[in-house]
């Protein structure tokens, strides 16, 4: 239960930091905060302590590939913000993220067995 509380506390701290930075002169730094590997650290610790180092490496590789949907989201926000209001921009960009994430998952499930086989 204490571990769950600590995870919630980290999430709340990140949201608070984003809110504070968004009101500052350096508001753009708020876009960097979500990229701090808070949840990646938690995930990697759990995978690393409960599974093999090979599984940790695969988790890290998948995390690296997961930057593609995030990049798609950011590109969509940048482009769509010229044409739509905030709600539509963020909604459509989320659809782009979902599409990219879906493609990533389909591709990963199809090709990750090949990655494992080639690493042995």
Automatic annotation (TrEMBL):
Origin superkingdom: Bacteria
A Pfam match: GlpM
Transmembrane segments: 27-47, 59-84, 90-108
UniProtKB keywords: Membrane, Transmembrane, Transmembrane helix
Record's protein name: Inner membrane protein YdgC
Species the sequence originates in: Photobacterium aquimaris
Lineage of origin: Bacteria, Pseudomonadati, Pseudomonadota, Gammaproteobacteria, Vibrionales
């Amino acid at each position: 239960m204490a571990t769950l509380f600590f995870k919630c506390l980290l999430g709340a701290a990140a949201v608070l930091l984003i809110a504070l930075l968004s009101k500052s002169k350096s508001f753009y730094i708020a876009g960097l905060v979500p990229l701090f590997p808070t949840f990646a650290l938690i995930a990697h610790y759990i995978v690393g302590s409960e599974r093999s180092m090979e599984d940790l490496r695969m988790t890290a590789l998948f995390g690296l590939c997961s930057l593609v949907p995030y990049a798609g989201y950011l590109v969509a926000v940048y482009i769509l913000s010229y044409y739509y209001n905030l709600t539509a921009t963020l909604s459509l960009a989320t659809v782009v993220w979902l599409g990219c994430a879906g493609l990533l998952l389909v591709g990963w499930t199809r090709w990750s067995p090949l990655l494992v086989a080639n690493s042995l």
